[in-house]
Amino acid sequence: MPTNKLDPALIAEVQALHDEGRTKSPERVIVDFVPPRDGLGPRYKLEGSDQEFLRLNSNSYLSLSHHPELIRAADEATHRFGVGPGAVRFIDGTFSQHVSLENRIAAFTGKPAAKIFNSAYTANLGLALSLAGPTTYWIGDELNHNCIIRGMRIANVPRSNRSIFQHNDVTHLKELLESVPSEMKRVVIIFDGIFSMRGDVTPLADIQKLAETYHDRFPEGVITVMDDSHGIGAFGKTGRGTEEHSETAADIIVGTFGKAFGVNGGFIVGSPAVIEIVRQKADTYIYTNPLSVADCAAAEASVSIVDGPEGRERLDGLRQRIAQFRSGVDAIGLESIDGPHPVVPVLVRDTLKVRQHVSALFEKGLLVVGLTFPVVPKGDETIRFQINAAHTEADIDAALKALREVAG
After folding, report:
1. Class assignment of domain 68-306?
2. Is 111 a catalytic residue?
3. Is 259 a catalytic residue?
4. Active-site residue identified among 98, 145, 230, 391
5. Distance between CA 63 and CA 263 in Å, rounded?
6. Out of 27, 104, 105, 155, which could bridge 128 as a Cys pair, Cβ 3.0 to 4.6 Å?
7. Active site (annotated) includes residue 196
8. Nearest to residue 98, comparing CAs of 226, 277, 279?
9. Where are the domains of the chain?
10. Are 19-55+309-407 and 68-306 the same fold in CATH?
C-alpha cells in the first residue's frame, strides 16, 4: 500500500518538532579530505562548496582515522576474509579478528574480558538487557547519555526500580542508595566518565568508594558501570581514560572505537561472568551481524598505537592544543567549564546567539556544534568545540581569532 495517507501525519510530526526547536539541521556531506600542509592541520570540503573547513566538531581526538597502519590492517583483513561477516556471531560469524580485538581492548583497559558491539550505543542497550531484572535497581546521573536512558526503557526497567542523582552529586547519590527498596538484590550505579556536552569528569573515586560502602547491604552487591566513550584513548596520561585520571577502577566499562581510536564499534569490559551474560542475553549482540574484520583489524592497530610511544606523543600534543584553546577562550572573556578534556564548551546561554555564532563561524571556515534546548537545559545553551591531535598551533590561533570576531 502507498504511504500517501501516512505521509501527511509524518510531515505534521516533523513540523511540530520544528516548532518546538527540536529538528535537526540538514546534513552536510563531506566530499573531500585535504591533508595537512604548510603548518596547518587537515581540512575538509563539503558538498556544494569549494571552501576548506577546519573541523572542530570531531570525536576523533587522536586523529588516527587516516593513519597508514590502520588502513593497511583494514585492507589486509578485508582481502583475506571479505567485506562482511555473513552471519551473526553465534552462527559462525565470529572471525579471529573479533576475538583478537576483544583480547586487546580487555588488556588495554585492565579488565579480564571484553565483548565488542557495532557501537557503544548498542553496547549500552545490550548491557541493560543483560543486567536488568525485577530485583535490580538502577541509579543514574541526570546528564547520562541518551543510550543509557534508552537502555533502561528497552530493558523495561520500571520507575520503582530506578532513580536519578543530580549531576556529579555524590551526596545525593548516597541519599538514593539509602532509599533503595529492601527487596532489591543488586544495585547498578551507571554514569558517563566524560559528559559529552560539557567535557566535565565524573567523580569516579568518590562514587566507587560510596558503592563499596553499600556493597554488603545487597545480596548481589552494588556495581558501577561507566560509559567512558569520550575518555578512553583521549584522556589520562596513557589514554586509559577516566579510570587513569581518577586512579580508580569502575566495575564495568562501556567504550567505543569510534572516537579517540578513530575507527568504528563499541565494547563492554568487565568480569568473565558479566561478559558471558552479555553474550547470552544482549539482543543487540545476538541478533545482528558483528563489526567487519576490517573494522576490527583497524581498531586493534589503533589500540596498539595508543598503547605505544606514538600514542603518548599524540596525547602530549593534544594536551598542548587543549591548553592553548582554553587559554584563548579565557583571554577573550568567554565562559567555559574547566577541565583537561578535548571537549571545550563555550557557554553562550542564549539559543538565538548560539545559532548566529555557529553560522558566522561556518562562514569563516569552522565546523562547530551548537547545543540548545532540549539537548541541554534552558540557560545552558553552548557552542561545543572538540580539539583533535591533528590540530596545529596555527589552527587553534585561527579558530580563536574567528571566535573573537564572532563572539568576543
Report:
1. alpha beta
2. no
3. yes
4. 230
5. 10
6. 155
7. yes
8. 279
9. 19-55+309-407, 68-306
10. no
